[in-house]
């Protein structure tokens, strides 16, 4: 119904390119390759079930520089991440059929 | 087994239904909601089952055994200090994959344990087919299926609790991959003799490795320079294996174990988008979602007013008749004064509870139960950033509309102490259900709904301005929002009713008696003319600064107990009935008084919880802050009415 709106960045997903969670279109599968930032953030994300290598998809975003909604495909959990945090999570495009 | 009452603890990730399960077994003792972190201090109950008594403890939800939020530390302290006899690990079956990571961690304790697959109905709806027998085999502990909201499976659970306790069956931990496991084993063997071993050497070694960069690290290493060397070396070795910090390597090991078990025991069919998920994409929509948020709250207060106001008028009638009857019959005697006081205390309570308090609690319970609070946090995050906080505080403020006390307790879910203090200082400014009731009852009833809405708006502006000021004083760049959004759930009437009953019970048990006692006391004081003394002392402030009749001074004294008391006693102090109020004071005076009372000091229970949670200093700051804001804003209201 709703929520399939493209992200503000116009570029289509480029295979093999690493970018941050803020730069990817909604609804497509990506793989977490790196979590930058301090151990505090890192541990928090680990505890919430977001690890390196996990498949994730952008599921929505709030207005006016608000948080993004990230879904973990495998565990079917969702977390809201502030932009400053989302910027620190680097992802690469994954095959749509990957599980 | 000996005669000691065995301790059974419920542990699980936030929002997995622990509290609902606990309530199903222990009776209604724990608060539930579809918002992570409602059980901030643990509930505890003695339960008899087949002739034996068990002490059952419901701990706050925790994502892992590495504590980060203050409430998660409660869990660890409990496990380590008061060694439980049995762990009941509650799992949201629809989130099996992630939940198993905590299960793997708990197995490492090697305490007797059972696993509860809760919310099985939800998992099935999501297209998950879980094989409990396979899961039981992989984990090596009994697995029980429950649907706690319907009370299904609770007898089964208690039977297993009895059985596992009787056999003292201890599970075995699951093995990490060889190269990591070997190093943990090595460290476990190197633990100094005087080292505080928790549960078993392997578990202690894992905790020690993971303590890197945490505050507990110092505790582990302080007196053991030799051990520190060993630990550092092993951390480096483990870190080198995967080119990641050691704590991440261990977390990844558990993640893979959990993933493997999940894949072996659970089949996921292609899930269709359910009706709720479609609804959710509407609720979370950046534009429509915000619109809906506004609509929900406006609609909520409109509804309460539409229901409450006529009901209130109808409920007040007999009490008013009774009061007049008493005065006619007994005149100005002590007995008459006391009876009138009693009638006003009881009647005031009736006029608060039924028309406004119950509907508001029911609606708040509904929003909490379906999982709307976290969503409001998501939608409002950007806005909150402009006020120097972030979206995680939003659910707490919304809780504050119900009652400030649990809202302040729930500030434990905030990671940073600075955010916690500021949020806790702001919550007393949020009009709780009891205060909202008075605003609606007085302002809306006497001046009209738009005035009440305006007052509410003014209230929110005050909170926003205060937030900007406070966050500027306590400057610090906030780490940003990390908030789990639980899946939307169909509301459970049972949960909502339980929650309403809970809050209502508190009101009837504590607030209403105070109200009645206060009312009686005021009657007595006025009969012996003591109130005049209080009024005279407070007069320069009450009539000088705020321009109110000085007879209102005495009601402020009662406001220290509960704020709404001051407002209810206004009638008694002014010697008029509800409907006649505006014949003795002006609209401006009424609003000035309501404003002052609304802000002037956190009520006794809020103050107590602030003191307990954040210390005496913060509680004192809160009092001063409230007093100065109350004086300033109510003076401004007076000024505004004088000018326009």
TrEMBL record, chain A:
SMART domains: FeoA. Keywords: Iron. The keyword Metal-binding does not apply. Pfam families: FeoA. It comes from the Bacteria. Residues 19-93 form the Ferrous iron transporter FeoA-like domain. Transmembrane segments: none annotated. The keyword Membrane does not apply. GO terms for molecular function: transition metal ion binding. PANTHER family: FEOA FAMILY PROTEIN (PTHR43151), SSR2333 PROTEIN (PTHR43151:SF1). This is Ferrous iron transporter FeoA-like domain-containing protein. It comes from Candidatus Saccharicenans subterraneus.
UniProtKB/TrEMBL annotation, chain B:
Residues 5-167 form the FeoB-type G domain. PROSITE patterns: G_FEOB (PS51711). GTP binds at residues 12-19, 58-61, 118-121, 147-149. Keywords: Cell membrane, GTP-binding, Ion transport, Iron, Iron transport, Magnesium, Membrane, Metal-binding, Nucleotide-binding, Transmembrane, Transmembrane helix, Transport. GO terms for molecular function: ferrous iron transmembrane transporter activity; GTP binding; metal ion binding. The chain crosses the membrane at residues 282-305, 334-358, 394-414, 421-447, 453-474, 510-530, 536-558, 591-611, 618-641. Mg(2+) binds at residues 23-24, 27. Probable transporter of a GTP-driven Fe(2+) uptake system. Belongs to the TRAFAC class TrmE-Era-EngA-EngB-Septin-like GTPase superfamily. FeoB GTPase (TC 9.A.8) family. PANTHER family: FE(2+) TRANSPORTER FEOB, FERROUS IRON TRANSPORT PROTEIN B. This is Ferrous iron transport protein B. It comes from Candidatus Saccharicenans subterraneus.
